[in-house]
From TrEMBL, chain A:
<dbReference type="InterPro" id="IPR003593">
    <property type="entry name" value="AAA+_ATPase"/>
</dbReference>
<dbReference type="InterPro" id="IPR022508">
    <property type="entry name" value="ABC_trspt_anch-rpt_ATP-bd"/>
</dbReference>
<dbReference type="GO" id="GO:0005524">
    <property type="term" value="F:ATP binding"/>
</dbReference>
<protein>
    <submittedName>
        <fullName>Anchored repeat-type ABC transporter ATP-binding subunit</fullName>
    </submittedName>
</protein>
<dbReference type="Pfam" id="PF00005">
    <property type="entry name" value="ABC_tran"/>
</dbReference>
<dbReference type="InterPro" id="IPR050153">
    <property type="entry name" value="Metal_Ion_Import_ABC"/>
</dbReference>
<dbReference type="InterPro" id="IPR017871">
    <property type="entry name" value="ABC_transporter-like_CS"/>
</dbReference>
<feature type="domain" description="ABC transporter">
    <location>
        <begin position="5"/>
        <end position="236"/>
    </location>
</feature>
<keyword id="KW-0067">ATP-binding</keyword>
TrEMBL record, chain B:
<comment type="similarity">
    <text>Belongs to the ABC-3 integral membrane protein family.</text>
</comment>
<feature type="transmembrane region" description="Helical">
    <location>
        <begin position="61"/>
        <end position="86"/>
    </location>
</feature>
<feature type="transmembrane region" description="Helical">
    <location>
        <begin position="21"/>
        <end position="41"/>
    </location>
</feature>
<feature type="transmembrane region" description="Helical">
    <location>
        <begin position="98"/>
        <end position="120"/>
    </location>
</feature>
<feature type="transmembrane region" description="Helical">
    <location>
        <begin position="140"/>
        <end position="158"/>
    </location>
</feature>
<keyword id="KW-0813">Transport</keyword>
<protein>
    <submittedName>
        <fullName>Anchored repeat-type ABC transporter permease subunit</fullName>
    </submittedName>
</protein>
<dbReference type="InterPro" id="IPR037294">
    <property type="entry name" value="ABC_BtuC-like"/>
</dbReference>
<keyword id="KW-0472">Membrane</keyword>
């Protein structure tokens, strides 16, 4: 199967600081890929490079066989929740509609087809009943769903999720994990997260990132503790390895 | 003075400046109410203040050379707003620092320019605190047409402004030109300020931008309602302010601002969901 998202030899600098080096990553359709690594590994920068928001120093990023272009490539982006102004007085459906602002076009108002797309996106994240509620009144998990719906309204081929589990309790994380798994049946999904347990449980591929992709594969195949130690910069006695079953066991992956 | 007497004065041919002042004050307040909704929701009050001060050198130059005040103020406000937007791209400086540098220097330039004009003290006071006399007929048309243009532009760019305000990063990711949308909003704030300066004055114009929108925010959780309520509150306060000012011979700009502030305080205490009393009742 061909990759719907591919990065080849990608380097990214922020100012003079090298953040990503020689990144190779290939994500196929209907794959849920967890992008894991320590703080400062370049997870968010990698997502921003795919979106075309930061320039690559070298290398190539292709989405659906075309070079990535902001606003043109079929990508849906779910930023970290704090990036959104939650006290802004808009309803859930109006917030989702903002995802279509550019596609509707300058000086034009949303049409029937746009409201239909918003309705479909809200249905996919099971938020139809709350479509008229002000976003300020939503819980953390509901807010995450609104951001996912806003990304889905563009009907993307690739969905990028940036730390979707941060600040959420375990039951909410489980429900969202099921949602992302369901979305991966129709799209390629890349999820940057520092929550290893959720990533191992939810994703069918993991990319271990620390400025470059140290390892890529099914959670159950990534048994070599050395790649985890290299990716996270930890010793072999680190509780991190035990927490994901590397310490003598095999991570329990989705569908295994 | 009773409201009927005020109405009679409005139609008195010897007091022709009064209806012109009323039209300009109400239109300016309505336009500022609409634009001010974004100023309040985006936390742009400091930028609004900066633009208000930045139009001063343009007004001063236009006054000295007997040119068009609206045009002069707009050019100066837009130039300053663009300079702020460009210099704020440098990440070592936060935007409020850049604003602080440029709006004070623009205001200082205005003072230097107007000091070269004859009757310097009187002109300065008129610019800073507003006046309802000496408004030419042409200015009424300019203010009304400019106001209509600003409201039309806001309606046309509404969904883009909302998208950028809600989530700037996502707006960029979907291909919206956030820099140019910022410039467009600054230009609209500038125009709203310029058409308000004549009656309310340069120092007090920020109140027209911020206070009605802040009051409306206390009263509603709906953006559409807020964008109707803010200009309605602003327009009504301008009418009441002008009436009170005319009745008791008070400065018009200051009186309008005090009426706006009174409305804000009433909303702060009595607003149905977010007022002081409602908050106390829901806490018990």
């Amino acid at each position: 199967m061909t990759a719907v998202l591919s990065l080849e030899h990608v380097d990214v600098d922020l100012g003079r600081r090298p953040v990503l080096r020689d990144v190779d990553l290939h994500v196929e359709d209907r794959q849920l890929v967890g992008l894991v690594g320590p703080n400062g590994a370049g997870k968010t920068t990698l997502l921003r490079a795919v979106l075309g928001l930061v320039r690559t120093r070298q290398g190539r990023i292709m989405v659906a066989d075309r070079p990535v272009r902001p606003g043109r490539s079929p990508i849906g982006y779910v930023p970290q929740r704090h990036a959104f102004t939650w006290d802004f007085p808009v309803s859930v459906q109006d917030a989702v509609m903002t995802g279509l602002a550019r596609r509707i076009g300058l000086f034009r108002r949303p049409g029937v087809e746009h409201w239909r797309a918003v309705g479909d996106a809200l249905e996919r994240v099971r938020m139809t009943d709350l479509r008229r509620r002000p976003v300020a009144e939503l819980s953390g998990g509901q807010r995450q769903r609104v951001l996912v719906a806003r990304a889905l309204v563009l009907r993307p081929r690739v969905l990028l999720l940036d730390e979707p589990f941060t600040g959420l309790d375990m039951p909410t994380q489980e429900v969202l994990g099921e949602l992302f798994t369901a979305l991966a049946r129709e799209n390629a999904v890349v999820m940057a997260t520092h929550d290893l347990a959720s990533a191992v449980h939810t994703c069918d591929r993991l990319a271990l990132l620390n400025r470059t992709v140290v390892a890529f594969g099914r959670p159950g195949d990534l048994r070599d503790r050395r790649v985890w130690m290299e990716a996270f910069g930890v010793s072999e006695r680190s509780p991190l390895l035990a927490s994901i079953g590397i310490d003598g066991g095999v991570p329990a992956e989705r569908g295994a | 003075m009773s409201p009927v007497d005020f109405l009679r004065d409005l139609f008195n041919p010897d007091l022709a400046f009064l209806p012109k002042a009323l039209v300009i004050a109400v239109v300016a307040a309505i336009v500022c109410g609409v634009v001010g909704t974004y100023v309040v929701l985006r936390g742009m009050a400091f930028i609004g203040d900066a633009v208000a001060h930045a139009v001063f050198p343009g007004l001063a130059v236009a006054f000295v050379v007997s040119g068009n005040l609206v045009l002069g103020g707009t050019v100066a406000g837009v130039v300053t707003a663009v300079l702020v937007a460009v210099f704020a791209q440098n990440r070592r400086l936060k935007e409020d620092s850049v604003i602080g540098v440029f709006f004070v220097s623009a205001f200082a330039l205005g003072i230097v320019v107007i000091s070269r004009a004859p009757g310097y003290a009187g002109s300065l006071q008129q610019f800073l605190f507003g006046s309802i006399t000496g408004i030419p007929d042409r200015d009424v048309y300019v203010v009304v047409l400019t106001g209509l243009g600003v409201i039309l532009a806001i309606l046309l760019l509404h969904k883009e402004f909302v998208a950028v305000t809600l989530d700037r990063e996502m707006a960029r990711a979907t291909g919206l030109r956030t820099f140019w949308l910022d410039i467009a909003l600054y230009v609209l704030v500038t125009l709203a300020v310029v058409i308000s300066v004549q009656t309310i004055g340069n120092i007090l114009v920020l109140a027209l931008l911020v206070t009605p929108a802040a009051t409306a925010r206390l009263l509603t959780d709906r953006l559409g309602v807020m964008m109707v309520l803010a200009p309605a509150l602003g327009g009504l306060s301008a009418l009441v302010g002008l009436y009170v000012s005319w009745s008791w011979d008070l400065p018009v700009g200051g009186t309008i601002v005090l009426v706006l502030t009174a409305a804000f305080l009433v909303a702060w205490v009595f607003a149905p969901r977010h007022g002081l009393i409602a908050a106390r009742l829901s806490a018990t």
